[in-house]
Amino acid sequence: MNTITVPNLASPEFKANPYPFYARLRAEAPIFRTTLPSREPAWLVTRYDDAVALLKDDRLAKDRRNALAPGSKAPWVPAMLRPLAQNMLDLDAPHHTRLRGLVHKAFTARPIERPRERIQELCDDLLAAAQRRRQLDLIHDYAVPVPATIIAELLGVPVADRERFHAWSTRMVSTSTPADMVRLLPTLWQFLRYLRRLIALRRADPRDDLTSALIAAEEAGDTLSEDELMAMMVLLLIAGHETTINLIGGGTLALLEHPGQLQRLRADPALIKPAVEELARFTSPVELATERYARVDIPIHDVVIPRGEKVLVVLGSANRDERQFASPDVLDITREPNKHLAFGQGAHYCLGSPLARMEGQIAIGTLIVRLPTLRLVRQPAELRWNKGLFVRGLTQLPLAF
Question: Which domain of life is it from (predicted)?
């Protein structure tokens, strides 16, 4: 009989240190059925090899409708939210393949290396302002504005709207219960109304930005519909900065908690690339991969995941699996090999991973060089984490220097 007590997986208290719970699941119940805060049953997949296999498994659908039994009704979606259902994160081939191809074409029209100088300039300006103030909340003053400004500029969103976009996306990723979803509706309405206006402006007056490129993207005569455009922009705005905020914030905290590793990186700045890979593994800014649904009964280990049920691959657990990583709870910025799953795996591998890596490398590398006496103001146990099922990030990180 299973006696594992499941905490609230979306609570800030759990986010502070989820790793002991995941270690127990890997040891005792690597494919574990639980009930989410939304009161929906789901299977947690916690071992690395299982995670890799299932993220590539065609028996799992991203679109819930593709996992329904014959004659079953698709879940009802409010009319206002239907445009969001057209995002490629929640679709399967061939629809996902088509959308990813169109978006990839728009991305490659604007080489991802182009923002490098802008990211560096932004980091320098933000840290200069912090030095003048003699104070720094790493999240609000640095980790948020770096990726939020870059994705806003890439999409052609005025920088003046950056904070609104961050507030909207934070509310969206913090949703974990039906009540949260109801409270989210006004935010979604504002977000979608804003995007409709922006798309209309870019249709009438194209610019050198990603929104205009998405509107113009064409593959064999195909284009994105209005709903697909809005869904893609919502996805890019959230995925394009929310996870990078967590990488910069959580990665900096990890370095401050491991002063030997921080000193090693300061002494050899060329280690920033493997360091960011290790920080991505160690902190897993996206803690759970977004949901998948069993198209058929799936036997795995000593259980069967029934058709139609939700499957959640726990990236934060797979990245700490002792079967894959030597001393997985140890931060080692020179770890090699480091085949972490922080950016996913398979057909839905993160399209923006090159940009996230670049932002993390520049932001963290610049921070530790410019502020060599950086230190925590609060004890790690006193820090508060954001609420939410899928991502793991700090609300604040006050630092002294």
Answer: Bacteria
3-state secondary structure 333-377: CCCCCCCCCCCCCHHHCCCCHHHHHHHHHHHHHHHHHHCCCCEEC
Q: In which residue are the tokens 């219960």 written?
A: 177
Question: Residue 330 domain-assigned?
Answer: yes
List pLDDT tens digits, range 160-181: 887 787 788 777 766 767 777 7
Instruction: Quote the DSSP letter at residue 154.
Output: H
Number of domains in the chain: 1
Asked if residue 282 lies in contact with residue 274, where contact means CB atoms within 8 angstroms, the answer is no
The position carrying tokens 């609060």 is 378
Q: Is residue 6 part of a domain?
A: no
Report d(CA 157, CA 239) in Å as an integer: 16
Please say whether the beta carbons of 399 and 391 come within 8 A.
no
pLDDT at 261: 98
Helix (H) or strand (E) holding 228: helix 226-239
Determine, yes or no, domain membership for 1: no
What CATH number does residue 113 fall under?
1.10.630.10
Close Cβ partners of 114 (under 8 Å, ≥ 6 residues apart): none
- Residue that has been written with the tokens 């795995």 in this structure: 300
- Phi first, then psi: give them for residue 45, nearest 5 degrees: -110, 115
At residue 76, φ and ψ (nearest 5 deg) are -70, 135
Residue 42, SS3? strand
* Structural domain includes residue 7: no
Residue with tokens 């494919």: 31
48 pLDDT tier (thresholds 50, 70, 90) = very high
Domain span at residue 38? 12-400
Distance of CA 246 to the CA centre of its chain: 8
54-83: pLDDT as tens digits: 999 999 999 999 998 777 777 776 767 777
